[in-house]
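During the practical work, I worked with a single protein chain and the tokens that describe its fold, as given directly below.
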Amino acid sequence: MGNSKALFLAAAVASGASFAANAADLLPPPPPIDMPPPPEYGGWYLRGDAGVGAVQMSGWRSTLQAYDETGQSLAASGNYIAPAFASIGDQGFVDIGFGYQFNSWFRADITGEYRTEASYRAGIVGANAFSGWVGGDYYNAGVSTALFMANGYVDIGTWHGVTPFVGFGVGIADNRISGLVDTGFGVAADKTQANFAWAVMAGLALNVTPNFKVELGYRYLDMGSLTSNPISCISPTGCWRETHSFHLASNDLRLGFRYAFNEPPMPVRPLITKY
């Protein structure tokens, strides 16, 4: 009799375990574990760039004054002039600055930049209706720029350590024209003129280390207008004291770096719960 009760209890336990196992198979799967969003971070960084700019000059004009220094008008003397050509060379540049990374997608910085002297060349053709004289003037000078910019950038995302970005900047361009010579006739004193400047940028940043990044970028830079000082002639009379004016812009290629003083935090991993 005792053996029969033991067998009955063993069968009941085995049957209950089998039922529990089958019931567990019928339960819904556990809810998925939500991955936390990537941690936001911020901090100061140092930056520097070097590159070359293909400078564009537009709106060029040479202004022979309406009256020379003796009071004689240009038209009354029978002189007529027209632009012949105007060109400007490329500029190299370097900059340095500091900025702040506000989060994983937005940063802003302030930079100071020096742009080397570009070769300025221009010419006009002229004629005198009374004498039949035909000739022209040839000019040369150097144009350099000191640039101070405040820039904002949007980092679009990071794939395999490469981060595309776009940006916009505003600031001040101190444009300088120096050594302006009217060949054979006279020279003008050097002049520096401050202008509003703006820029749009795009490029790629390579994450060399969590703190150090290398950037390759393009920038369109508008540096405003520049007007020279009047040209003082070698001859004491009959000098028209002309000035030159033009607008400056540049297509820049930049290679730079950024060094962050705060290392971005490691991503937070969720705790895995066993069911």
